[in-house]
Each structure stands twice: as structure tokens, then as C-alpha cells.
Amino acid sequence: MTDAQPVSLVMAVLNEERHLRAAVEAALGQDFPAELELVIALGPSRDATDEIAEKLAADDPRIRLVRNPTGLTPAGLNLAVAEAKYPIVARVDGHALLPEGYLRTAVEVLQRTGADNVGGMMWAEGVSTYEQAVACAMTSPLGNGPAAFHSGGTEGPTDTVYLGVFRRDTLLRLGGYDESFVRAQDWELNYRIRQDGGVVYFSPELRVTYRPRATVRALAKQYFNYGRWRGTLIRRYPESANVRYLAPPLALVSIAAGAVVAATGRRWGLLPAAGYAATIVVGSLVTGRGLPPAGLIRLPGVYATMHGAWAAGFLTGRRR
Question: DSSP assignment, residue 188?
């Protein structure tokens, strides 16, 4: 790629002391034939994130820091994009590790297809036993549905992708990320790109390593927010609704209603819960074949946490 354009990487971080250094090293360690810069938007972290970022910036002149007082991801990304100086902008996540050749491939696809945004897969890989179970669930259709950016697919136009490598003028023309979307801001932006006549393009070669949440509480909070903001998106853009989004809420409502019926002495009310439990146990045996025994034991609970939290968030999503 001899005619590659320079790239600005943008990252919004908050309480990322555990993963920030590795994420930055992976981003700036790319084998890329043009200039790179990284703009990091620093939220009000309660850990050593700021100190780590300042040390990284002092050691590498390609890194610049901006303050993000709200700590919100879309606000931080917009601040970083505003500071970016190159025509191509690549979003990076403080929880993610870009693989070798990521930018080279993404920019080549961007130039070849004329797309406005190119991205790939959010490939979860865990370190602890629990994280490994979460990673297995996140990359399985049983956990996250058939979305290509979770479980893979063929190259081509799509609804949304993980992270994204954008044309900066597209971001500026559309006003960047909608800062009212604390979560799901990438999906919302990609929806507007498509509505504007642009193309969001998926490439399975762009498989980004993602570090999943390490505790039940953190996972439940993450998926509650995912569901809540998906519900908010559908309320804003009803035409974007998909029947698969209704499966977890329907399951949760059925189980809750069945429990109420069972409490009156009608044991058949337990059938929805029993059916769901059987589904995730069998599904865990099928999808968790590569896990160690300790991870396989945790997998049904991981699926239940993801489904239940997502459904609860969806049903209670913001109305405005």
C-alpha cells in the first residue's frame, strides 16, 4: 500500500489502568506505511489511567491527550476527532488490542470499496476462567445473536461493525457521535451513515481482541446498558427494530409470569423457566467445547446473566 493516507487513532478512556498500555502499544505498533497519531480523551478516572496516559504521551510524540470532563464515551470520541489532523480516523477502545496489520487492511478496504466506515469483529478473549466463559458466550450466536461483528461472516456492507475506520469528513458532516447515547453510539452513528447514503463495510479480517468483563456484576451492568440503549435506539428509530431483539425480553417476561403462576400452586407455570434452563445448559455443552471444565461450569450462568440483564435493560430503556 504505497499510497496510504495518514491515520488518526482516537480513544476515549475511563478507569482503564489495567488495559490502557497494551491497547496503546498495539495501536501504535502497527506495520503501517504512513504517519500515525493517537488522540486519547481522558475522562475523570478514579485509578491510575491518567498517570499511565501521561507517561505514554511523554515517551511517544505521536500521542496527544485531551480532557473529557463528562467521562462519556461519545463526548470523548468527538473531542478526540476534533483534535485529529489526518483524513482517516480509526476508533480504538481501551479494552481492545488491534491485531498486526489491522490499519493496513482497514485502509485498503476503505479505499477499495469507497465505504464511509470499515470495521470487523469484536473477538473476545479472556484471561481468567470466568473471562474465558464470557468470551465464549460473547462470540456465540446463543450469547449475542447472529451479528457478524460478534461471530463472523462474509465481507460486505452491513448495519454496524466493531470500532470502525472512518473518513473524517463523513464524521464531521454528520456531526460525529450523538452524545445523548451513552451506549450504542457506534450503532446509532452507523445508522445515520447508512441513512445518509453511505456504506458501512464489514471485513472478517479485522478481528480485534477484546478483554471481557471479569465479574458477574460488571458483566450484568454492561449488558443491562446494552439492552437499555438498544431499546432507546428502537424507540428513536422504530424502523430499525429486528425480531431477534425481542427474544430476551419475551423470555424474561415469560419466566416472570410463569413464576407468578407457579406461586399460586400451578406447577406448569415453571415450564418457561425449565425450558430456558434446558436451552442454555444444552447450548453451553455445544458452544463451550473448548473451555476448561471450570469455565464450562460457569457458562450457563454467563448466558443467563447476559440474557437477563439485556432483557431488563431493554424493557426499562429511556423513553427520550
Answer: H
* 94/153 Cα distance (integer angstroms): 25
Q: Whole-angstrom Cα distance, residue 181 to residue 244?
A: 22
Cell of 297: 461450569
The distance in angstroms from the start CA to the end CA of the chain is 46
Is residue 205 classed exposed, middle or buried when 0-12, 13-18 and 19+ CB atoms within 10 A define those classes? middle
Cα–Cα dist 67/305, whole Å = 34
Distance CA 239, CA 247 (A): 18
Mean pLDDT of the chain: 91
**H or E stretch at 72:** none
Residues in the chain: 320
List CB contacts of 67: < 8 A, sequence separation 6 or more. 41, 42, 79
Q: Dig out the grid coordinates for 234 from the structure.
A: 428502537
Q: What is the C-alpha to C-alpha distance for residues 56 and 53, in angstroms, rounded to an integer?
A: 5
Long-range residue pairs from 50-55, CB within 8 A, at least 24 positions apart, any chain = 52/17, 52/20, 52/21, 53/13, 53/20
| Residue (of 309, 318, 319) closest to 252 by Cα position | 309
pLDDT per position as a tens digit, 28-56: 999 899 999 999 999 999 999 999 999 99
* Per-residue confidence (pLDDT) for residue 40, from 0 to 100: 98
44 CB neighbour count, 10 Å cutoff: 13
Nearest to 186 by CA among 119, 108, 110: 119
